[in-house]
Amino acid sequence: MSDQNMSQRRGKRVTALALVAGLGLAGAGSSMMLPQAPAEARSTGSSNMSGVGAPRIADLPGKHLGFVVTYFYNAMYQGKDACPAGLNKILSSQEFLAGKPAEERTRLLKPENMSELYRLMNSGGPKGENLCDAPWSVADAPMTTLSGDRNDGLDLDGWKGEGPAPAGICKQKQYIGEHGEQGIDNQLGRIYACLNGIREKGTLVPYFMSVMRGGMWSMLIDVSGVQDMHNDADVNVDVYAGAEPMVRDPSGNVLTNASLSPIDDPKFQRRMKGRITNGVLETTPIPDLFLPDNMLKSRRPIEIFRPRFQLTLKDDGTAKGLLGGYRSISTLFVPGESSSAPMSYVGYQCESMYHALRRYADGNRNPSTGTCDQISAAFRVEAIPAFIVHPESRPVPSFSDAR
User: Fold this and answer.
1) Among residues 10, 193, 224, 315, which is most buried (max CB within 10 A)?
2) Can you tell me the mean pLDDT for 116-133?
3) Is residue 357 classed as helix, strand or coil in its secondary structure?
4) What's the domain count of the chain?
5) Which residue range forms the structural domain that includes residue 337?
6) Structure pTM?
7) What is the spatial distance between Cα 59 and Cα 54, in angstroms, rounded to a whole number?
8) 236 falls in which pLDDT band (50, 70, 90)?
Protein backbone atom coordinates (compact mmCIF):
# COMPACT_ATOMS: atom_id res chain seq x y z
CA MET A 1 0.00 0.00 0.00
CA SER A 2 1.37 3.47 -0.86
CA ASP A 3 2.14 6.10 1.76
CA GLN A 4 -0.64 8.21 0.29
CA ASN A 5 -3.27 5.50 0.75
CA MET A 6 -2.04 4.70 4.24
CA SER A 7 -2.40 8.35 5.14
CA GLN A 8 -5.99 8.49 3.90
CA ARG A 9 -6.93 5.39 5.88
CA ARG A 10 -5.45 6.64 9.13
CA GLY A 11 -6.89 10.12 8.81
CA LYS A 12 -6.00 13.20 10.76
CA ARG A 13 -6.53 12.02 14.28
CA VAL A 14 -3.47 12.43 16.49
CA THR A 15 -2.14 15.34 18.57
CA ALA A 16 1.41 16.39 19.34
CA LEU A 17 1.51 13.85 22.16
CA ALA A 18 1.03 10.99 19.75
CA LEU A 19 3.59 12.48 17.38
CA VAL A 20 6.18 12.43 20.14
CA ALA A 21 5.14 8.95 21.27
CA GLY A 22 5.80 7.53 17.83
CA LEU A 23 9.43 8.51 18.17
CA GLY A 24 9.75 6.56 21.42
CA LEU A 25 12.17 5.45 21.36
CA ALA A 26 18.86 2.83 25.14
CA GLY A 27 34.11 -0.28 29.91
CA ALA A 28 34.47 -3.43 32.04
CA GLY A 29 33.25 -3.85 35.59
CA SER A 30 31.72 -6.30 38.02
CA SER A 31 28.40 -6.72 39.80
CA MET A 32 27.02 -7.65 43.17
CA MET A 33 25.70 -11.18 42.75
CA LEU A 34 22.13 -11.71 43.81
CA PRO A 35 21.54 -14.91 45.77
CA GLN A 36 20.15 -17.98 44.04
CA ALA A 37 16.64 -16.99 43.04
CA PRO A 38 13.77 -18.96 44.56
CA ALA A 39 11.62 -21.07 42.27
CA GLU A 40 9.02 -18.33 41.88
CA ALA A 41 11.62 -15.89 40.56
CA ARG A 42 13.03 -18.09 37.82
CA SER A 43 12.28 -17.67 34.13
CA THR A 44 9.79 -20.34 33.11
CA GLY A 45 7.16 -21.10 30.52
CA SER A 46 6.51 -18.44 27.90
CA SER A 47 9.62 -16.50 28.88
CA ASN A 48 11.57 -18.94 26.72
CA MET A 49 10.23 -17.27 23.58
CA SER A 50 13.16 -15.82 21.66
CA GLY A 51 11.23 -14.30 18.79
CA VAL A 52 8.97 -15.36 15.98
CA GLY A 53 10.39 -18.45 14.29
CA ALA A 54 13.30 -18.76 16.70
CA PRO A 55 14.01 -22.03 18.54
CA ARG A 56 13.25 -22.37 22.24
CA ILE A 57 16.27 -21.60 24.43
CA ALA A 58 16.61 -24.05 27.33
CA ASP A 59 17.02 -23.03 30.97
CA LEU A 60 20.52 -23.07 32.44
CA PRO A 61 21.61 -23.95 35.98
CA GLY A 62 23.11 -21.10 37.95
CA LYS A 63 22.33 -17.84 39.65
CA HIS A 64 20.06 -14.98 38.58
CA LEU A 65 20.69 -11.28 38.20
CA GLY A 66 17.40 -9.40 38.07
CA PHE A 67 16.99 -5.77 36.99
CA VAL A 68 14.34 -3.13 36.44
CA VAL A 69 15.23 -0.49 33.86
CA THR A 70 15.12 3.06 35.24
CA TYR A 71 16.38 4.93 32.17
CA PHE A 72 15.55 4.08 28.58
CA TYR A 73 15.92 6.58 25.76
CA ASN A 74 17.32 6.97 22.27
CA ALA A 75 21.13 7.06 22.44
CA MET A 76 23.29 9.36 20.32
CA TYR A 77 26.46 11.41 20.55
CA GLN A 78 25.79 14.77 22.23
CA GLY A 79 29.25 16.31 22.53
CA LYS A 80 29.92 19.98 21.83
CA ASP A 81 30.89 19.14 18.24
CA ALA A 82 27.73 17.13 17.49
CA CYS A 83 25.85 20.06 15.93
CA PRO A 84 28.41 22.78 15.11
CA ALA A 85 25.92 24.66 12.93
CA GLY A 86 23.31 24.67 15.68
CA LEU A 87 20.12 22.72 16.11
CA ASN A 88 17.74 21.95 13.28
CA LYS A 89 15.82 25.03 12.13
CA ILE A 90 12.03 24.86 12.06
CA LEU A 91 9.36 27.34 11.07
CA SER A 92 8.20 29.22 14.15
CA SER A 93 4.69 30.54 14.65
CA GLN A 94 6.09 34.08 14.78
CA GLU A 95 7.71 33.66 11.37
CA PHE A 96 4.59 32.12 9.90
CA LEU A 97 2.33 34.88 11.26
CA ALA A 98 4.63 37.75 10.28
CA GLY A 99 2.93 38.15 6.92
CA LYS A 100 -0.62 37.92 8.26
CA PRO A 101 -2.86 40.87 9.08
CA ALA A 102 -2.83 41.85 12.76
CA GLU A 103 -6.43 40.75 13.25
CA GLU A 104 -5.68 37.29 11.81
CA ARG A 105 -2.54 36.94 13.97
CA THR A 106 -4.56 37.71 17.07
CA ARG A 107 -7.26 35.21 16.11
CA LEU A 108 -4.88 32.35 15.36
CA LEU A 109 -2.94 32.83 18.58
CA LYS A 110 -6.00 32.22 20.73
CA PRO A 111 -5.79 28.84 22.53
CA GLU A 112 -8.94 27.52 20.88
CA ASN A 113 -7.43 28.18 17.43
CA MET A 114 -3.99 26.60 17.97
CA SER A 115 -4.84 23.43 16.05
CA GLU A 116 -5.86 25.53 13.08
CA LEU A 117 -2.63 27.53 13.33
CA TYR A 118 -0.45 24.42 13.34
CA ARG A 119 -2.43 22.87 10.51
CA LEU A 120 -1.87 26.02 8.43
CA MET A 121 1.83 26.04 9.31
CA ASN A 122 2.16 22.47 8.08
CA SER A 123 0.32 23.17 4.82
CA GLY A 124 3.39 24.14 2.80
CA GLY A 125 3.07 21.75 -0.12
CA PRO A 126 3.30 23.02 -3.71
CA LYS A 127 -0.49 22.78 -4.00
CA GLY A 128 -1.19 23.64 -0.39
CA GLU A 129 -0.88 20.05 0.82
CA ASN A 130 -0.43 19.50 4.53
CA LEU A 131 3.09 18.11 4.62
CA CYS A 132 2.38 16.05 7.73
CA ASP A 133 -0.34 14.27 5.74
CA ALA A 134 1.54 14.11 2.43
CA PRO A 135 5.28 14.71 2.99
CA TRP A 136 6.03 13.11 -0.37
CA SER A 137 4.52 16.23 -2.00
CA VAL A 138 8.03 17.71 -1.89
CA ALA A 139 10.93 15.80 -3.43
CA ASP A 140 13.21 16.36 -0.45
CA ALA A 141 13.57 18.56 2.61
CA PRO A 142 16.65 19.64 4.57
CA MET A 143 17.43 18.58 8.12
CA THR A 144 20.44 19.30 10.34
CA THR A 145 21.89 15.96 11.45
CA LEU A 146 24.84 14.71 13.51
CA SER A 147 28.22 16.03 12.41
CA GLY A 148 31.55 14.21 12.59
CA ASP A 149 32.54 10.59 13.08
CA ARG A 150 31.45 9.98 16.69
CA ASN A 151 28.18 8.36 17.65
CA ASP A 152 26.95 6.12 20.44
CA GLY A 153 25.57 2.71 19.58
CA LEU A 154 26.61 -0.83 18.64
CA ASP A 155 28.06 -2.54 15.60
CA LEU A 156 24.94 -4.34 14.42
CA ASP A 157 26.15 -5.85 11.16
CA GLY A 158 29.89 -6.54 11.60
CA TRP A 159 30.73 -4.18 8.73
CA LYS A 160 33.35 -1.49 9.31
CA GLY A 161 32.69 0.50 6.15
CA GLU A 162 35.25 -1.13 3.85
CA GLY A 163 34.44 -3.41 0.96
CA PRO A 164 30.94 -4.51 0.04
CA ALA A 165 28.24 -4.15 2.67
CA PRO A 166 26.64 -7.34 4.02
CA ALA A 167 23.53 -8.66 2.32
CA GLY A 168 20.41 -6.90 3.49
CA ILE A 169 22.24 -3.68 4.40
CA CYS A 170 22.22 -0.27 2.71
CA LYS A 171 25.57 1.51 2.92
CA GLN A 172 25.59 4.39 5.39
CA LYS A 173 28.23 6.21 7.38
CA GLN A 174 29.95 3.97 9.93
CA TYR A 175 30.60 5.75 13.21
CA ILE A 176 33.24 5.51 15.93
CA GLY A 177 32.06 4.66 19.44
CA GLU A 178 32.91 6.19 22.80
CA HIS A 179 35.90 3.90 23.32
CA GLY A 180 37.13 3.90 19.72
CA GLU A 181 34.94 1.04 18.51
CA GLN A 182 34.65 0.95 14.71
CA GLY A 183 31.54 0.29 12.62
CA ILE A 184 28.91 1.78 14.96
CA ASP A 185 25.43 1.61 13.43
CA ASN A 186 23.02 4.27 14.70
CA GLN A 187 21.45 6.17 11.85
CA LEU A 188 18.41 7.10 13.92
CA GLY A 189 20.73 8.77 16.42
CA ARG A 190 22.25 10.60 13.46
CA ILE A 191 18.81 12.06 12.68
CA TYR A 192 17.76 12.84 16.24
CA ALA A 193 21.05 14.36 17.47
CA CYS A 194 20.26 17.95 16.47
CA LEU A 195 16.51 18.06 17.08
CA ASN A 196 15.62 20.35 19.98
CA GLY A 197 12.88 18.20 21.49
CA ILE A 198 13.87 14.59 20.96
CA ARG A 199 17.68 14.65 21.09
CA GLU A 200 19.15 12.99 24.16
CA LYS A 201 19.78 16.38 25.77
CA GLY A 202 16.43 17.66 24.50
CA THR A 203 13.45 19.16 26.23
CA LEU A 204 11.37 15.96 26.10
CA VAL A 205 13.73 13.56 27.90
CA PRO A 206 12.60 14.49 31.45
CA TYR A 207 9.01 13.95 30.39
CA PHE A 208 9.73 10.53 28.90
CA MET A 209 11.51 9.47 32.09
CA SER A 210 8.73 10.73 34.35
CA VAL A 211 6.17 8.83 32.28
CA MET A 212 8.13 5.60 32.59
CA ARG A 213 8.93 5.97 36.28
CA GLY A 214 5.37 7.10 36.97
CA GLY A 215 3.97 3.74 35.92
CA MET A 216 3.10 4.00 32.23
CA TRP A 217 5.42 1.08 31.43
CA SER A 218 8.47 -0.77 32.71
CA MET A 219 11.14 -3.18 31.47
CA LEU A 220 12.54 -6.11 33.42
CA ILE A 221 15.74 -8.02 32.66
CA ASP A 222 16.62 -11.40 34.16
CA VAL A 223 20.12 -12.78 33.55
CA SER A 224 20.11 -16.48 34.48
CA GLY A 225 22.48 -19.42 34.45
CA VAL A 226 25.28 -17.24 35.84
CA GLN A 227 28.25 -19.25 37.10
CA ASP A 228 30.79 -16.42 37.17
CA MET A 229 29.68 -12.80 37.30
CA HIS A 230 32.86 -11.55 35.63
CA ASN A 231 33.35 -14.11 32.87
CA ASP A 232 30.70 -16.58 31.79
CA ALA A 233 30.51 -17.86 28.24
CA ASP A 234 26.88 -18.96 28.38
CA VAL A 235 24.00 -17.16 30.09
CA ASN A 236 20.35 -16.55 29.28
CA VAL A 237 18.85 -13.08 29.23
CA ASP A 238 15.08 -12.75 29.58
CA VAL A 239 13.50 -9.40 28.73
CA TYR A 240 9.96 -8.58 29.84
CA ALA A 241 7.54 -5.72 29.88
CA GLY A 242 6.63 -5.22 33.54
CA ALA A 243 3.11 -5.76 34.83
CA GLU A 244 3.57 -3.23 37.63
CA PRO A 245 5.00 0.26 38.07
CA MET A 246 8.43 0.65 39.55
CA VAL A 247 8.38 0.91 43.34
CA ARG A 248 9.31 4.41 44.51
CA ASP A 249 9.94 6.02 47.86
CA PRO A 250 8.09 9.18 49.03
CA SER A 251 10.72 11.32 47.29
CA GLY A 252 10.12 9.59 43.96
CA ASN A 253 13.36 7.59 43.90
CA VAL A 254 13.05 4.08 42.43
CA LEU A 255 13.75 1.44 45.08
CA THR A 256 16.25 -1.36 44.52
CA ASN A 257 15.48 -5.04 45.10
CA ALA A 258 11.73 -4.61 44.76
CA SER A 259 9.66 -7.61 43.67
CA LEU A 260 8.17 -7.03 40.22
CA SER A 261 6.23 -9.27 37.83
CA PRO A 262 6.34 -9.59 34.03
CA ILE A 263 3.23 -8.83 32.03
CA ASP A 264 1.29 -11.99 31.21
CA ASP A 265 1.63 -11.69 27.44
CA PRO A 266 4.17 -13.75 25.43
CA LYS A 267 4.46 -10.91 22.93
CA PHE A 268 6.34 -8.91 25.54
CA GLN A 269 8.61 -11.74 26.66
CA ARG A 270 11.86 -12.59 24.91
CA ARG A 271 14.88 -14.73 25.74
CA MET A 272 18.37 -14.13 24.34
CA LYS A 273 21.65 -15.99 24.64
CA GLY A 274 24.50 -14.01 26.10
CA ARG A 275 27.98 -14.05 27.55
CA ILE A 276 29.77 -12.04 30.23
CA THR A 277 33.31 -10.91 29.45
CA ASN A 278 35.22 -8.89 32.04
CA GLY A 279 31.93 -7.84 33.60
CA VAL A 280 30.29 -6.81 30.33
CA LEU A 281 27.15 -8.66 29.27
CA GLU A 282 26.61 -9.03 25.53
CA THR A 283 23.71 -10.85 23.89
CA THR A 284 23.35 -12.39 20.46
CA PRO A 285 20.62 -10.97 18.22
CA ILE A 286 17.12 -12.48 18.10
CA PRO A 287 14.47 -11.73 15.46
CA ASP A 288 12.56 -9.07 17.40
CA LEU A 289 11.73 -7.44 20.71
CA PHE A 290 8.44 -5.73 21.58
CA LEU A 291 8.08 -2.97 24.18
CA PRO A 292 4.90 -1.14 25.13
CA ASP A 293 4.72 2.36 23.69
CA ASN A 294 6.45 4.50 26.28
CA MET A 295 3.77 7.20 26.31
CA LEU A 296 0.49 5.90 24.97
CA LYS A 297 -0.56 2.35 25.79
CA SER A 298 -3.26 2.51 23.13
CA ARG A 299 -0.63 2.72 20.39
CA ARG A 300 1.07 -0.23 18.74
CA PRO A 301 4.15 -1.50 20.62
CA ILE A 302 7.67 -0.39 19.84
CA GLU A 303 9.26 -3.14 17.77
CA ILE A 304 13.03 -3.54 17.59
CA PHE A 305 14.39 -5.93 14.98
CA ARG A 306 17.55 -8.00 15.55
CA PRO A 307 18.06 -6.51 19.01
CA ARG A 308 21.14 -7.06 21.17
CA PHE A 309 22.30 -5.71 24.53
CA GLN A 310 25.70 -4.57 25.74
CA LEU A 311 25.52 -3.87 29.48
CA THR A 312 28.25 -3.27 32.02
CA LEU A 313 27.44 -5.06 35.29
CA LYS A 314 28.65 -2.80 38.07
CA ASP A 315 29.96 -3.47 41.58
CA ASP A 316 26.89 -1.89 43.18
CA GLY A 317 24.55 -4.32 41.39
CA THR A 318 23.37 -1.86 38.74
CA ALA A 319 23.77 -2.24 34.99
CA LYS A 320 24.37 0.38 32.32
CA GLY A 321 24.86 0.22 28.57
CA LEU A 322 23.06 0.03 25.28
CA LEU A 323 20.34 -1.84 23.43
CA GLY A 324 20.86 -1.78 19.67
CA GLY A 325 18.70 -2.93 16.78
CA TYR A 326 16.66 -1.78 13.82
CA ARG A 327 13.36 0.13 13.74
CA SER A 328 10.84 0.20 10.91
CA ILE A 329 10.79 3.64 9.30
CA SER A 330 7.07 3.26 8.60
CA THR A 331 6.34 3.34 12.34
CA LEU A 332 8.76 6.13 13.26
CA PHE A 333 6.85 8.67 11.20
CA VAL A 334 3.29 7.93 10.14
CA PRO A 335 1.81 10.34 7.56
CA GLY A 336 -1.54 11.67 8.70
CA GLU A 337 -0.81 11.55 12.43
CA SER A 338 0.54 15.05 12.87
CA SER A 339 -1.38 17.43 10.62
CA SER A 340 -2.25 19.83 13.45
CA ALA A 341 0.69 19.15 15.79
CA PRO A 342 3.20 21.85 16.83
CA MET A 343 6.62 20.97 15.43
CA SER A 344 8.28 23.07 18.13
CA TYR A 345 7.79 20.17 20.55
CA VAL A 346 10.03 17.85 18.61
CA GLY A 347 12.20 20.18 16.56
CA TYR A 348 11.56 19.12 12.97
CA GLN A 349 9.22 19.62 10.04
CA CYS A 350 7.22 16.56 8.97
CA GLU A 351 8.58 16.50 5.44
CA SER A 352 12.15 16.67 6.78
CA MET A 353 11.66 13.65 9.03
CA TYR A 354 9.90 11.66 6.31
CA HIS A 355 12.77 12.13 3.85
CA ALA A 356 15.56 11.77 6.44
CA LEU A 357 14.29 8.36 7.54
CA ARG A 358 14.31 7.16 3.94
CA ARG A 359 17.66 8.77 3.17
CA TYR A 360 19.48 7.13 6.10
CA ALA A 361 17.64 3.79 6.34
CA ASP A 362 20.22 1.00 6.42
CA GLY A 363 18.43 -2.24 7.32
CA ASN A 364 16.24 -4.88 5.64
CA ARG A 365 17.31 -4.01 2.11
CA ASN A 366 14.91 -4.87 -0.69
CA PRO A 367 17.01 -6.54 -3.44
CA SER A 368 14.54 -5.46 -6.12
CA THR A 369 14.50 -1.74 -5.29
CA GLY A 370 17.85 -1.45 -3.51
CA THR A 371 16.20 0.55 -0.73
CA CYS A 372 15.96 -0.21 2.99
CA ASP A 373 12.85 0.05 5.15
CA GLN A 374 14.52 -0.22 8.57
CA ILE A 375 16.97 2.08 10.30
CA SER A 376 19.65 1.27 12.86
CA ALA A 377 19.06 2.64 16.34
CA ALA A 378 20.35 2.51 19.90
CA PHE A 379 18.79 3.02 23.30
CA ARG A 380 20.67 3.98 26.43
CA VAL A 381 19.79 1.65 29.29
CA GLU A 382 20.29 2.05 33.04
CA ALA A 383 18.94 -0.56 35.46
CA ILE A 384 18.92 -1.34 39.18
CA PRO A 385 18.57 -4.68 41.01
CA ALA A 386 15.09 -6.21 41.27
CA PHE A 387 13.53 -9.58 42.04
CA ILE A 388 11.50 -10.80 39.06
CA VAL A 389 8.56 -12.85 40.28
CA HIS A 390 6.28 -14.87 38.01
CA PRO A 391 2.63 -14.63 39.11
CA GLU A 392 1.75 -18.27 38.38
CA SER A 393 4.11 -19.48 41.07
CA ARG A 394 4.18 -16.53 43.46
CA PRO A 395 2.98 -17.58 46.93
CA VAL A 396 2.55 -14.08 48.39
CA PRO A 397 1.88 -10.62 46.93
CA SER A 398 4.91 -8.67 45.81
CA PHE A 399 5.85 -5.48 47.62
CA SER A 400 4.46 -3.55 44.65
CA ASP A 401 1.12 -5.36 45.01
CA ALA A 402 0.96 -4.56 48.71
CA ARG A 403 1.63 -0.83 48.42
Assistant:
1) 193
2) 91
3) helix
4) 1
5) 3-402
6) 0.84
7) 15
8) very high
